[in-house]
Amino acid sequence: MALLKCVDCEQPISDRASKCPHCGAPKRAQHRKRSARSLALERLGFALIALGAVLMVAGAGSEGNVARVGGLFLLAGFIPFLIGRSLD
Ligand SMILES: [Zn+2]
User: Fold this and answer.
1) Nearest in space to 69 (alpha carbons), one of 80, 59, 61, 78
2) How many Å apart are CA 54 and CA 67, to the nearest integer?
3) Confidence (pTM)
4) Which of 9, 12, 52, 64 could connect to 3 by a Cys-Cys bridge, CB 3.0–4.6 Å?
5) Selection from 41, 50, 29, 28 nearest residue 82 by Cα
6) Cα–Cα distance measured from residue 20 to residue 5, given in angstroms and rounded to the nearest whole number
7) How far is the CA of 11 from the centre of ligand 1 (A)?
């Protein structure tokens, strides 16, 4: 039997216990490794959101489609961002 540390109260818990006997927090993996694919998707989405926000600010108040394209980038960026976050 090995002892793990509770992620909430940092008291030792048995690796066979399903929750912490001290604070009742359900046992979670302490450092869950994220898959490279979900991280890549999340970063791609974040980059699109950031680029879209920059374009919206840069194009605000001027004629043309810069702000509109920025808005589309921003919205489109949420899709891979959210998929990447929900993968694991
Ligand atoms: Zn605890």
Assistant:
1) 59
2) 9
3) 0.60
4) 12
5) 41
6) 9
7) 6
Token pair of 73 as six digits: 């980038």
Of residues 56 and 29, more confidence is placed in 56
Residue 64's Cβ-count burial label (10 Å; 0-12, 13-18, 19+) is exposed
Using one digit for the tens of pLDDT, what is the confidence trace for 30-52?
Answer: 556 678 898 999 999 999 999 99
The reported pLDDT for the residue numbered 61 is 84
User: What percentage of residues in the chain have a pLDDT greater than 70?
Assistant: 92
The Å distance, Cα 82 to ligand 1 centre, comes to: 30
Ligand 1 centroid from CA 64, angstroms: 56
Residues with CB under 5 A from ligand 1 (ion): 6, 8-9, 20, 22-23, 25
